[in-house]
Design brief:
This protein has 164 residues and is mainly alpha-helical. Helix content is 60%, strand content 4%. The chain has six helices and two strands. Strand 1 and strand 2 form a beta hairpin.
Amino acid sequence: MSLSEQDIQWYENSISQLREAVAGLTEAQLTHKPSPHAWSVTEVLSHLADHHIVVSYRIREIISDSAARLPAFDQDAWVLHSRANESSAADILDFFEALVKYNRLLFKRIPAEYGEKSAVNIRGQRVTLSEVIRSFAEHLQTHLRQIERILGDAPAGSRTENAV
């Protein structure tokens, strides 16, 4: 399947969905951990930024016809050892948005047929560029639901104007 405008639009919508999900949250709501081993909203955002870096690399490996396997990463270790909960949610979202814009420029330059280009993932499965982009959008939806669950368990407090 070719790289479609719909795939690109789903990808582009990721930042507005994230910003909407955390709009007005207080620092306490953003950093609240439902349990010691569960992620906070800020940690989810950090994970999504990390994932976005890896996906951006995968995109470039696919379009360059690389024979290397597409990388995986240890998401829990990345979140833990980067001290993600000490990050600014606003800064994470700004980075995420910059990467969306940068990749969008790439998508505008490459032919639609590149959506059919493929590479082998860590599981040994062949995946196309279009599938990687769609998978990224689906992954985001999973974490948006996770944010809703975390907020359901967060300390009481209304959303404020000076929050994220």
